[in-house]
Amino acid sequence: MFHEAIRAYSLLERSFEMRILRRWLPGLVLVLVVTSAVSTAIADKRPNILVAISDDQSFPHASAYGYQAISTPAFDRVAKMGVLFNNAFTPAPGCSPMRAAFLTGRNIWQIEHAGTHASSFPKKYEVYQDRLAAAGYFIGCTGKGWGPGNWKVDGWNNNPAGPSWGRRKVKSPAGISSTDYAANFADFLKDRPKDKPFSFWYGATEPHRSFGKGIGIENGLDPSKVVVPKFLPDTPEIRSDILDYCFEIQWFDQHLGRMLDQLEAAGELDNTLVIVTSDNGMAFPRAKANCYEYGIHMPLAVSWPVGAKAGRVVDDPVNLIDLTATIYDAAGVETPTETPIAGRSIRNILESTGQGIVDKDRDAVFSGRERHSSSRFNSLSYPQRCIRTRDYLYIRNFRPERWPAGPAQKFDKVKYGADSSTASSTLGPMHGGYHDIDACPSLSFLIANRDDKKIGHFLNFAVDRRPAEELFDIRKDPACLDNLAADPAFAKVRSNLNARLFDYLKQTNDARVTSPDGGDIWETYPRYSSLRWFPAPDWADQDPNRVPALEWLEKKRPR
Question: What is the C-alpha to C-alpha distance for residues 441 and 446, in angstroms, rounded to an integer?
Fold first, then answer.
């Protein structure tokens, strides 16, 4: 604009009106220069950040994906304002490690204690919220931040997700939190210093278990519209449980809708980077806490009206830690140097006009898990790592001798002697275990019908031991029921994905592949949530080296 004004001035100098124009044209040029500077300042204004994370929601359970049993107008609105992602994946199929990975932008095997469930969060791993605050952002959160776990033992002044806004409450249905997330966000906006960009974390506790049984049907959701995953039996009991789950997703979505309305009323929506996703998959058998498709495949919609082209659907594989990198990129804040992030910004996808496959370099994502709940002897984990390409899912189970959902029995009562070396106990009934599956009507139904010839095998899908390697053709088998790892026809695919997975794990220094002890350091991280007690597994006598000593466990034994 400035150069155009100079050219105009040059032409006018040769005109007969030059004497008159000389009086006012310098002022015009000054106005044009100032206008240009203001326009540039507006264009460079740092975006606000709103991260909305539901608790235990699998892809494709949002109406934007065509799932007819549910209505998610707020999620759909974000997708229409920006980009709907068909292939977004969590860095871990469990809430606490996923949230730590998202906050740090690192894989779970790169953040020590924070990469497992209900442990602690070493402060040396910087979180994006703190770095944005140091760069002048006003930060906060409502609902579930990082957790479960103990952040205080590592010296944090508040939850790593940010200072909490949680005063507002609302009368809620059974199984649903009374936190009025949207009203708390309104308070946060009122408390924000004028003209300061913000970064806010909205962490719902929905649709985490437990649900109000029958709440979906009671509120008009239609069982006939439910699509039952093939790893679950298609029965009225299962359909009803899925509808209860859908109702809780809608509760999360309603609060998101109110937040979007608040931003629009404040004139802030266009310059807010809105990220809507979930931490891990649905809390049903063979989904949450598993590296199968329904455990790691997440819904994701991202909008940023001034920075992202709207109304597109993208198929590129994206890891949620790539969103952390995107936040840094959009905010213009440097990423940590001592503990570098592993994610890669998707800003190029947001700013493109393309659909489908936009960035051809994105052809795989990685995920993994360690300990989920207290569900095994000595609170041992079930370590998994996986690579997901556009067509295949390859999983490596590092301790296939362990039960993936935990054993079927646990102690009802445990009493230890004064020196902690002796104990008397009462072993509970069979099927009093399986604690790596959240207690729910679906699990109870599978257990009650375990001897039924038609549906008994569905329990086996969730609880039986698994081989060291699993390979699935996601195009044909999204339920992950047909393991192709031993099929000669897929030997080349299996070998290639195994090599790619292990190369990445070595590059990112995963103790499961780089440590001489096979990564048993993971078994030593303290657990701060409650513990359950189990008999020694059948493999412990044969291979005692795989039962690492847990001194912290001795301190927590019941007396």
Answer: 9
* Closest to 408 in 3D by CA, of 378, 445, 436, 368: 436
Contact 343/91 with Cβ under 8 angstroms? Answer: no
306, 330 Cβ separation under 8 angstroms: no
Series of mean pLDDT values for 10-residue runs along the chain (559 residues): 37 38 42 38 74 98 98 98 98 98 98 97 98 98 98 97 98 96 98 96 98 97 98 98 98 98 97 98 98 98 96 98 98 98 98 96 97 94 98 98 95 77 80 94 97 96 98 98 98 98 98 94 93 87 75 73
**Residue 554 has what pLDDT?**
75
Contacts of residue 243, defined as CB under 8 A and 6 or more positions apart, other chains included, come to 69, 216, 217, 221, 222, 223, 226
Per-residue b/e over 364-392, b at no fewer than 16 CB within 10 Å? bbbbbbbbbbbbbbbbbbbbbbbbbbeeb
Task: Please name the residue that has the structure tokens 């760069």.
Answer: 135
Pairing mode, strands 384-389 and 392-397: antiparallel
Q: How would DSSP label each residue in 340-384? A: -------HHHHHS---BS--TT--EEEEEE---SS-SGGG----E
> CB 415: neighbour CB atoms within 10 A?
13
**Quick one: CA torsion of 549, 551, 552, 555, rounded to 10 degrees?**
130
Cβ within 8 Å of residue 434, ≥6 positions away: 375, 405, 406, 407, 408, 443, 447, 462, 463
Q: How many CB atoms lie within 10 A of CB 236?
A: 10
Q: Which among 409, 432, 444, 466 has a CA at the least distance from the CA of 290?
A: 466
Give the helix ranges, DSSP H, for 105-198. Answer: 128-134, 181-191
Contacts 24+ apart (CB under 8 A), 451-457: 454/233, 455/233, 455/235
**How many whole angstroms separate alpha carbon 370 and alpha carbon 349?**
31
So what's the pLDDT on residue 548? Answer: 77
